[in-house]
Amino acid sequence: MQTVMDKAIRTAINAARNAAIGAAILLGAAAMGPAQVLAQPAEWKPSRSLEWIVPSGPGAALDMAARQIKEAADRSGKLEHPFLVQNRPGGSNLIALNTLIQNPGNGHFVATFNHGQINNRLLGALPVGYTDFTPIAILLEETLVVAVREDSPIRTAKDLVERLRKDPGGLSIGIATSAGNHIHVAIALPLRKAGVDVSQLRIVPYKSSAASMTDLLGGHIDIVSASTPNVVALHQAGRIRLLAVPTAERLGGTLATVPTWREQGIDAVYHSAQGVLGPRGMAPEQIRFWENLLREATRSEGWEKLVARNHWRPTFLTGAEARAYMDAQNEEARAVLGAIGLLKK
Q1: More confident residue, 181 or 23
Q2: What is the C-alpha to C-alpha distance for residues 232 and 210, in angstroms, rounded to an integer?
Q3: pLDDT for 8
Q4: What domains sit in the chain, N to C, each tagged with a CATH number?
Q5: What's the CA gap between 297 and 155, in Å, rounded?
Q6: Measuring CA to CA, which residue among 215, 344, 269 is closest to residue 6?
Q7: Residue-wise over 19-52: b if at least 16 C-beta within 10 A, else e?
Q8: Which of 45, 256, 286, 299 gets the highest tally of CB atoms within 10 A of its CB?
């Protein structure tokens, strides 16, 4: 059964796709003769190295995805120039995005799109957003979970909701790395739907999810919201209990026993997306080059193993579909951040 958000995303995607196809047919028929209509579209090839800019350090989830794409592209043997992954964390993603800002129309540069860019723009921490660039693709959706220590008296999501309804600030909640980001929203959204005053939550920011998990184990905080790669090992070791995942259905593998929020009576579904942005003003043939490269790379065995290992959801969208997806996530983030009281006015 689809949520209202799921339906909104699908409706927006379908409308954007149909509009784009219709416009392309009408404009193409009016501007071209019969021979031109049948002509093959122009092809673009890199004339120097390709650079993928990642707004995080080596080994992080964003970095792992970019490097797996690079490895698949290298293995294809189709690139005549080097493919480089550059790590430029900091500045609420602005340091990485500056490379795109400084290279308008240059198809040799792309950067990772992530949900943090949407939130940081709405929070006023980032002066630019995805609309200032060329959306190329959505690659995957990350899953975030809520964790407590194994000996915590909070046994289920229902227990958590009951405690926080009575006293929203009564439990400390660790997140990485800043209030209002996707990790914060991942726990605030279901709690808000369950009737908790999420503007009063006691949020404790950490530099990394590894640091928040360490403090959880040490008894310094009560709850952690984190992405799946940060909890699997501790969950398997029996040191933490995972209360809920905000997916429509349960995850598989090592997290198959973790119930969804929906199963526990709270109709909340949430994902954090990763994708690819290019500079403003890219030519259609440059966009097509990257779409083809990404499509082939995400069909590789290495990519499929990475996605499965991290409990990610493959979600390959390009063109109008990718833009519609980003627009829908932007509106959801705006609503939740407004409820939290962090939306910049």
Answers
A1: 181
A2: 12
A3: 44
A4: 4-9+48-142+271-340 (3.40.190.150), 144-264 (3.40.190.10)
A5: 41
A6: 269
A7: eeeeeeeeeeeeeeeeeeeeeeeeebebeeebbb
A8: 286
Pairing assessment for the beta strands 223-227 and 202-206 based on DSSP bridges:
unpaired
Q: For the chain, what is the total number of helices (H) and then of strands (E)?
A: 12, 11
pLDDT at 35: 44
- Taking 60 as the threshold, does the pLDDT of residue 28 lie above it? no
83-87/50-54 β-pairing = parallel
Q: Pairing state of beta strands 223-227 and 172-176?
A: parallel
Q: Are 181 and 277 in contact (CB under 8 A)?
A: no
Per-residue pLDDT, 39 = 56
Of the candidates 290, 315, 266, which has an alpha carbon nearest to the alpha carbon of residue 143?
315
Nearest one of 6, 1, 65 to 270, comparing CA atoms? 6
Residues 79-97 have pLDDT tens digits of 999 999 999 998 889 999 9
pTM over 0.90: no
